[in-house]
Design goal:
The chain is an alpha/beta fold. About 20% of the residues lie in helices and about 35% in strands. The strands form four sheets. Strands 1, 2, 3 and 8 form a four-stranded mixed β-sheet that branches. A two-stranded antiparallel sheet has the order 4-5.
Length: about 160
Amino acid sequence: MGQSQMEVANKVFEQAAAENITVVAASGDQGGLDGESSPTVNFPASDPYVLAVGGTSLYYDNPYQQTAWGGYYDGTTFGSGGGFSANFSRPYFQAGPPGINSTMRGLARRCMVANPETGVLVVTDGTERQIGGGTSVGAPIWSASLHSSTSSTTGRLAS
């Protein structure tokens, strides 16, 4: 996506935020390199007006254990996308934590189970279909959670 297209989308996301609409996007499933030779992050998750959802792995080891999802296999990164935007400055609400020296927008802001090996069961019409994974599974789960949380309030809960 070109810079001018990102700027137009950014204005749309900014307007949504002004109207208390939370836009949720997956951070991507190809890790920090996302198929590139240097670290990168995906748009629209990198936009400061979008809630970026990354991925975790969930294992049962009495009790459940949750870890960041990702790794490196056969010359390619995989797992939750994340890092710092090359296009958007760090918003005021990301000031700190200590030791992070980037002046650019960091993501992911929230995480949900996304590892296909430990993913979620997909059921349609009452029939189990498959175990699904990826941050594209986590993003709508977060969106539904936000909708449920805001159904009795009038404010925007996350960004």
